[in-house]
Amino acid sequence: MGQGTLQGRLHLKLLLINEGVKRGFRARGFIEYIPSECAWRGIKADGYMVIHCIWVVGKNKGHGYGTKLLQECLKDARGMNGVVVMTSEKTWLPQKDLFVKNGFKKVDSMSPYFELYAKRLSEDVPTPKFNPIPRRRLEEYLNGVTIFKSNQCSLRRWLHKSRDGNQQTSWHSMPN
Q1: Cα–Cα distance between 19 and 112 in angstroms, integer?
Q2: How far apart are CA 108 and CA 167, in angstroms?
Q3: Which of 41, 84, 94, 160 is positioned for an S-S bond with 128, CB 3.0–4.6 A?
């Protein structure tokens, strides 16, 4: 199982599925996660692994690939407090269904439609929560349209193809 890391912190895992002799291996999903001290989400989650993005391509949904990607993150989080993810039913963020199915619990929410789900790996660890937003900051962005742009999504930077015909599912590292 390969993985790419940015200075040993950012984990990027790509799921490749063997689609037969003619098509070969195709990228059908990926997950991106990082320890909380390096995360760029507005949360307090000391000692947790933070999932920034998880994605499975259309027709491959419903085959357990999202769970396989999530299990890779949970393996890398061993020895930490747990894994946390920000979800939303109305934005680009992942929806909660996959996480609930895999034992994550809702630990916080923020208006208008953000939720924080966590899988604590021990009962005696702190519960993650959203960072509060000071009222003055909210008022700064109240009127008009504000656009924030980042290069966060790693999938658009690189997709890898494999010629390993012996495996049906293959994990490969993504270069930094």
Answers
A1: 41
A2: 40
A3: 84
Over residues 48-82, the pLDDT tens digits come to 999 998 989 888 888 899 999 999 999 999 999 99
Q: Which residues pair with 86 in a beta bridge?
A: 116
Instruction: Count Cβ atoms below 10 Å from residue 27 Cβ, excluding itself.
Output: 19
Which pLDDT tens digit goes with each residue over 27-40?
A: 788 999 999 998 87
Q: What is the 3-state secondary structure (H, E, C) of 84-106?
A: EEEECCCCCCCCCHHHHHCCCEE
Q: Largest alpha-carbon pair distance within the chain?
A: 59
Q: Going from the N-terminus, what domains does the chain have, and what CATH number goes with each?
A: 4-156 (3.40.630.30)
Are 3 and 176 a contacting pair, CB within 8 Å?
A: no
